[in-house]
Design goal:
Blueprint (H helix, E strand, L loop, with lengths): L1 H14 L1 H35 L8 H11 L3 H13 L3 H11 L5 H8 L7 H12 L6 H18 L21 H38 L6 H8 L3 H10 L4 H14 L1 H12 L3 H28 L1
């Protein structure tokens, strides 16, 4: 399956260079304007907090509700906070880093992967609700339907998480000399730059694929339209919002797309977090369930509100 796909992709680049060039420019501009200024600082700062053992200094008022509601550790609560605020793939990235550093165990990491990786509230409120759907009055509905579904899923699957851990918030500070401190800072900068560039490559490649598929896709079928939009979430939201579908159908499909995240976000998550087969299967299953919950909430929103 991979080799035929690569061959088709090569033929597309060969025979439609102008289209590929425009798609590449659009993907790079999307990365430069939207991803680089938002995710790079968070990747760098979260890495520094983790390496220097400063996560315990995050105010308890920010993490304690997640600890009580979801049964996670202090570090797990930080992953929830980052995942719900920063957007794909930061939730999975910080969870992977915490597990690698031994701050959370495998069971808690597996649990967190299921629901902490989401689109950001800023993306939903500004780009989706206002810019594309032009429904500013219903911004909170987009937020509640998508992030609310993820949080509810996290609550109902929290029974699988055992709390056999210390609840201490005592900070673990590393005694480092100047050279050691610089080495850690330099490694964090390198990691943040590398991961941000990798995201740019994924976004650009999937933008090319998305534009190629959508160019030959029939525009009248909502199922095919949604499948085409699912390749990349940002362009997919624009495609659905600009379609001739009715507003209620657009509302449901856009909510579902944002809940799932698209194939591009899936590829980014697998790459950045290094998900293994078992965890990847659980992650995809969780996203499907969250998407179905979001569709249900969206339909209820239309019926009652």
């Amino acid at each position: 399956m991979l080799l035929p796909g690569l061959f088709i992709f090569f033929l597309y680049l060969l025979f439609f260079p102008e289209n590929a060039l425009e798609s590449t420019r659009a993907g790079l501009l999307l990365w430069y304007h939207s991803v680089l200024p938002v995710l790079f600082p968070f990747m760098l700062v979260s890495s520094l907090l983790l390496k220097f053992g400063l996560m315990e200094h995050v105010p308890a008022r920010l993490t304690r509700p997640f600890e009580k509601f979801l049964g996670v550790s202090v570090h797990g609560a930080f992953a929830v906070l980052i995942g719900f605020l920063c957007g794909f793939p930061m939730g999975a990235k910080i969870t992977s880093d915490l597990e690698a550093e031994g701050r959370i165990n495998e069971r808690e990491a597996h649990y967190l992967y299921g629901f902490v990786n989401n689109v950001s509230p800023a993306f939903l409120l500004s780009y989706v609700a206002v810019s594309q759907m032009e429904l500013p009055k219903y911004k909170l509905l987009f937020l509640g339907n998508i992030l609310g579904a993820a949080l509810i899923y996290g609550y109902f699957t929290s029974s699988s998480l055992k709390k056999g851990r210390s609840e201490s918030r005592q900070a673990v500070l590393h005694a480092l000399d100047l050279a050691g401190t610089y080495e850690i800072i330099d490694s964090c900068i390198y990691g943040a730059v590398l991961n941000t560039v990798k995201l740019g490559v994924y976004i650009t490649v999937f933008k090319i694929i998305s534009d190629a598929v959508l160019a030959v896709l029939p525009s009248g079928n909502p199922v095919l339209l949604f499948l085409g939009a699912s390749i990349e979430v940002t362009g997919g939201v624009h495609l659905l919002a600009a379609s001739q579908l009715s507003v209620p159908v657009k509302f449901v499909l856009v909510n579902a797309l944002c809940a799932f995240g698209g194939l591009s976000a899936l590829a980014q998550t697998v790459s950045i977090a290094g998900l293994k087969e078992k965890t990847l299967f659980y992650y995809i299953k969780s996203r499907v369930i969250i998407t179905l919950l979001t569709i249900s909430f969206s339909i209820l929103s239309i019926l009652f509100l």
